[in-house]
Amino acid sequence: MPDEQYSNSRSKYKADIAGLVREDDSDGQLLAISEMSELFSVTLRTLRFYEEKGLLNPVRRGARRFYRGRDVSRMRVILQAKKIGLTLAEVRRIIKLVEGSSPRADQLKELQEICGAQEQLLHEQEQALQELIAEVRGISQALTSILAVEA
To answer: Which residues contact 27 (CB under 8 A, 6 or more apart)?
Structure first.
């Protein structure tokens, strides 16, 4: 993605692995947990889990939870990272990186390294699966041959 920032009159946005991410909460808009759940098609339990793990930090008003723009951005990152198979530790690393103060070019390079390492891992898993498929195929063909002889 280009190393760009986008802005409108209220907020600045920057690009990361999940697309455009809001940098501030200047408009003060809060989402109730049910709205957050609906927005991301996740359960309330999922949101509470990510809060428990320290990935989301909703505002508490009594027993109710409200999510700010930063939590919405974090949730987008969490779901994108989960989709490509990253662990919660890697998600924490990405959030810390993206929200950190290091130069944007350094952030993007490190994100690229994380994605490259994940791609390599997925290729290794793909190869292992192909080998397992070939093994199962061989067993199935042997069973077919045995059935043909015994029929």
So the answer is: 10, 11, 69
Burial of 77 (0-12, 13-18, 19+ CB in 10 A): buried
The class that CATH gives domain 5-150 is: mainly alpha
* β-pair type (19-22, 5-7): unpaired
| Residue with token string 């997925």 | 122
User: Phi then psi for 43, rounded to 5 degrees?
Assistant: -80, 160
- Pair 59, 65: CB distance under 8 Å: yes
Rg of the Cα atoms in the chain: 22
For the stretch 13-54, pLDDT in tens is 454 555 545 555 445 689 999 999 999 999 999 999 999 999
| Ranges of each domain in the chain | 5-150
Contact 108, 3 (CB under 8 A): yes
DSSP three-state, residue 65:
strand
The CA distance from 151 to 138, in Å, is 20
Encoding tokens for residue 48?
Answer: 């509470």
Cβ atoms of residues 40 and 79 within 8 Å: yes
Rounded-to-integer distance, Cα 112 and Cα 102, Å:
15
